[in-house]
Amino acid sequence: MTDLGLCRWGILSTAAIARKNWRAIAQSKSGTVVAVASRRIEAARCFVRECQAHTAQRQVPDSMDGYEALLAREDIDAVYIPLPTGLRKEWIIAAAEKGKHVLAEKPAALSADDLEDILSVCRRNNVQFMDGVMFMHSARLPLLRQCLDDGQSIGAMRRIACHFSFLGDDSFSQKNIRVDSQLEPFGCLGDLGWYCICFLLWANHWQIPTQLTGRCLTSMRGERSETAVPAEFSAELLFPGGSTGSFYCSFIAGHQQWAHLSGTQGNVFMPDFVLPYYGCEVAFDIEKPTFLVNGCDFHMQEHTRRVIVDEYASGHAPAQEINMFETFNKIVLTREVDPLWGNISLATQRVLDQLFAVSK
Length: 360
Known about the structure:
It contains ten helices and 16 strands. By secondary structure, the protein is an alpha/beta fold. The chain folds into two domains: about 5-135 and about 325-335, NAD(P)-binding Rossmann-like Domain (Rossmann fold, 3-Layer(aba) Sandwich); about 140-310, Dihydrodipicolinate Reductase, domain 2 (2-Layer Sandwich). Strands 8-9-10-7-11-12-13-16 form an eight-stranded mixed sheet, covered by helices on one side. A six-stranded parallel sheet has the order 3-2-1-4-5-6, sandwiched between helices. A two-stranded antiparallel sheet has the order 14-15. Helix 4 (about 85-95) runs parallel beside helix 5 and helix 5 packs antiparallel against helix 10 (about 340-360). The longest helix has 19 residues, at about 340-360.
């Protein structure tokens, strides 16, 4: 099935994010890109030429004229699909039916029902499905889990807040696919809110909220869009046991991507929970402030412990996106499909669907 112990990848589409994942595959020890497909072969050739010049694969990948041609190849084990959400189900199912394992961008589907269809086809063909949330593969997450569950670092979880935003320019608000309701109907909720929902669910051991509210604060409508999509969204969630969560995602606020987890004894702050700040370490701070009163003296004292992991922000092992492909490659090479990743996507999709529905 494999060539020299490598997972052989095909890429469907020349979307910008595919360049980052091209590099991650090339930097992995167990994978290589074999072919790239586009609806226009010249776009595929340009993509391969530019990416190969920046970060070379083991051999120059082929450029394919159309997605069907790539899926028909027998020398491809897995496909990465960064196509828009509105087009993705068709091609994930087509790939799975050809026996290809699938790593797809998020949101995973247009609805939980669609994702259940996708997962059913993947199970029937014994292929892996995984969405492309890179932070789930960071070495920082297991250390954070230990701190959240040790009963001492922050005590009992009470509140989580997340924020993920960037400022889109005038061109973005008119021409970007993320403001086109046919291609990306969830807008910022799907593009940015997916990460926040995933993190909130992870922190709560994948328990589904018992109550939730969502509100679209601002909308955008691209020049080719039939309807407006969320450009600014806020949400509140209540989890079993009484802990709460909130998040804000936006195309109209500057770069922020922080998470704050509050407990009965302390709190954790990460300023970069999605895309680690550039460097060779990732970290989070555990804060346990104390309030002391002595006569007329009132003091709030800071007590902070920094937890650091040796992990590059991007481009060099062990960056989280490279870890993601190493994990996926191992699944393919050992033929041990892991349903966990599809279940994670489905839980996230169900919450996203509910928030989108109640915000209308």
